Input
Amino acid sequence: MHDSVNRDLAAPSGDGRRFHLAASPSVERPVPSLPDLDLPLDHLSPTIAVMSLHNSRNRKGQLSLDRYTQPRAVHLYEIEFFTQTGGVAVVDDCQYPISRGDVRFHRPGQIVWSHVHYECYAMRLALDGRLPEPGAYQPLFHNTYLDAIPCFMSVSSPESYARLLDDMLRLWINPQPGSELLLKSKTLELICLLYKDAVQLNVLGGSQRLTDTVTRAMDYIAAHFCEPVRLTDIAAAVNLSPYHFHRQFTRAVTMTPLAYLTRVRIEQARELLLTTRMPVSEIAPACGFESPSYFTRVFRGLTGQTPGMFRRHRQLF
Output
């Protein structure tokens, strides 16, 4: 199956240190050939088998820098969201230094192990809603969304994932009437977030990760889009000169900071148009536009419709 592991791993910090790992045993049983099945979107019904917040510190709270987990075969689908930088994740012999905001997406049949320390939210789930017998494997499911998600990636907004997973963990630990349905919906939301970040990663060529600077800039824009934000304001919030910030953000996100700000404002405006009776004259300043006429011009340029047309064609009331 797999040879025993006996290799040096480069430290995630890139400072020249290396981890020397003693030989560890291979997976005891060979992984059977798993069926490949299409899973249409209307059959995607994730059920969580187990969920936890895993911390690889020892019982005394000390970091265990010389430890690694035993290689194992994955039976169910698994999602791990890392909340701290440290350690190395290994998936089918590919090594991934772990940073805060990274996600590992395991599929049945993969061989995984880790060099600790790290901390992560972890869950095992059946994507079709049917948990197999202990020791059995789920099939390999395929659809547009699942196939886009790589086995390891960095996400664009770690805070969004942390909030969602914290809510899910609370529901898992203290179930109430309706918790199972709510957990299912939140798991679908998690898969949607992964899909959107995977699409962004593909746009970036699969090799770049959003830097902490870009992530903080996106968070700043999300918190201040209704204000008269300028490029200099965003750059100051991330402690960069406007020139260097503009270049870094545009390279990572494939649009300028002000174009991204405009997109956020328009998305909020679309939501207000469809969920409230606010007049356009009030929606414009609520979304950071200097005047209703300018808002209408920008909205039409991006959507092909005026705000009024958009509301009439899509609003339910």
User: Anything to note?
Assistant: Residues 1-25, 58-65 have pLDDT under 50 and may be disordered.
